[in-house]
Amino acid sequence: MLLEAQNVVKAFGSFKAVAGADLAVAEGEIVGLIGPNGAGKSTFFNCIAGDLRPTGGRILFDGSDVTDAPPEKHARLGIGRTFQVPATFEDMTILENVMVGAFLRHPGRGEARDRALHVVEMTGLKEQAHLRARSLGTPGRKRLEIARVLASRPRLMLLDEALAGLTPAEIQRAMDLVREIHGLGITLVIVEHIMEVILTLARRVLVFNQGHIIASGSPRDVVNDPAVIEAYLGRGHGRKAQ
Amino acid sequence: MRWASLAVAAALLLYPWLVAGTDSAAFLQDMGALVLLAAIGASAWNIIGGYAGQISVGHAMFFGVGAYLPLIVYTQWQLPPLAGVPLGIAVSLVLALVVGVPTFRLVGHYFSMATIAVAELVRIVMGNWDFVGAAIGIMGPATPRGWWDLIFRSAVPYYYIFLVVLAVLLAVTWQMQRSRLGYYLRALRAGERAARSLGVPVRRYKLYALMLSATFTSLAGSLYALKTGFIDPDSGFGILVSVQMIITAALGGAGTLFGPLIGAVILVPLQTATNTWFGGGGSGLTYIIYGGIIVLIARFEPGGLVELWHRLAALRLQRRGAKRHAA
């Protein structure tokens, strides 16, 4: 397994945002994480990315224990992430933003620039490469975050609602990009609210509710699962589905 | 742009000769040296405060250490003041580690507060320590024992020494901003969380920036002491020393290569003018001017004059493009 989360718990005081979640992701997979608002998926996601230190459980990446490792170590090992609210470096140009990612594996400026140029072309940002990141709208920023991570040559990419707020046409383009990234052999874990994206891209889906994983399986199985319907729509709807 | 840069470089090189024929030649040459010294201090602060975005309000601690050490080695052991310059840098690096290692673990304004606290602590200690002249301060050699004492009657030799140091500092900064260090510093200034997610060891890089900044700030202090031949706790460690570095960099453009130099070219003559016009009675006016500049920069142009120039240039281009389109 490339990524293994074993009985991960994250508590804030007496409140358990994640109450014992397990996840195993094989190399080359695309796994989707879904769940209603406040279900704990973002907290779990942040634990995997190293942004939050779990209260309990273990997280292994390619056999190494990264439970207590800082985010920069996660990045060095090959875990890249995007943010729900894009966190681009506003005063830097798009190319410079991507170069920050590229420097992780290419310490020399020339090499990092070459890598960044390749990535901005691949992600469709070449035309705007010399504009400042602040000049981009939401779709551009989300794309830039993906490009920045991609430049760091990750083995696993964690996409946190990378397609939220996009128009249908933009979603289609973004999905093509995700497919292209997957084609490079990069494993993907996607947190997403847009069901169309999850159903189309993910081979396996895990559903979070109240800090627990309540269902997992193929996208089709999961959306028909009464427990999932109940979690999203309320108690009566789950029973009706049965 | 290339011609403009060459013209500025030529003006800086020839300045002492250009003003030599005027009635106030000595005054203007001295002011030129002070502009360069202020530019060195502000450019040194700019590495940590501008590029890395870590606002040090106590950079006077490095300036003061750099200023005191050359005069201490002279008064205590009759060594050339020059011998104290590397010692000042070494002590400043230790201070940088003492302040940076614990505070860079924390998120927020702890670094700024810690720098003020340490600088004030050092100022109070120096003001009460007889070994370093306590509140009275210490003096350098009154007459040169040899060229190595670096004592000159004219400000012109100091002007060229400062110009060389500034050129080296700007070259180092230019190289830094093109390297991984520069990119990482700008990234962590924009967002530490995002920078860390891309593998930037934020704490380590902040410490590198602080150490590099402390080295050149200490050097600025040493140059100041060599030129004036005197230092006391207020002129070395006073908070106004730190504030002047910040304002000079912010006015020109913090986080830009030439911003601090531009800030110094405006601020030092302004300060000299107010001192000349209002004499000793107007010394408080400096604080009022600094306060006014802080308010204006924060309200209208946080990026400083360099940013304003870039915005105006972009607007000009846009208008030219629109005219061409209309034609």
- What is the fold-level CATH name, i.e. the topology of chain A? Rossmann fold
Proportion of helical residues of chain A: 25-40%
Shape of chain A: globular
From the coordinates shown, what is the CATH architecture of chain A? 3-Layer(aba) Sandwich
Order of helices and strands of chain A: EEEHEEHEHHHEHEHEEHHH
SS element count, helices of chain B: 14
Let me know the average pLDDT of chain B: 91
Question: What kind of oligomer do you see?
Answer: heterodimer
* Content-based structural category of chain A: alpha/beta
Q: What can be said about the biggest beta sheet of chain A?
A: 6 strands, mixed
The number of domains of chain A is: 1
Biggest sheet layout of chain B: 2 strands, antiparallel
Biggest interface, chains and residues, is: A-B, 30 and 20 residues
Description of the molecule:
The complex is a heterodimer of chains A (242) and B (327). Chain A is α/β, with parallel strands linked by helices. Chain A has one domain: Rossmann fold (3-Layer(aba) Sandwich). In chain A, 40% of the residues lie in helices and 24% in strands. The longest helix of chain A has 16 residues, at 168-183. The model of chain A has no long low-confidence stretch (mean pLDDT 90). Chain B has one domain (2-326): ABC transporter involved in vitamin B12 uptake, BtuC. Chain B has helices at residues 2-18, 25-51, 60-77, 84-103, 110-127, 156-178, 180-190, 192-197, 202-228, 233-237, 239-252, 259-278, 285-300, 304-326; strands spanning 138-139, 230-231. In chain B, helix 2 (25-51) runs antiparallel to helix 9 and helix 6 (156-178) packs across helix 7. The radius of gyration of chain B is 21 Å and the shape is globular. Chain B starts with a helix and ends with a helix. The model of chain B has no long low-confidence stretch (mean pLDDT 91). The interface between A and B is medium-sized, with 30 and 20 residues.
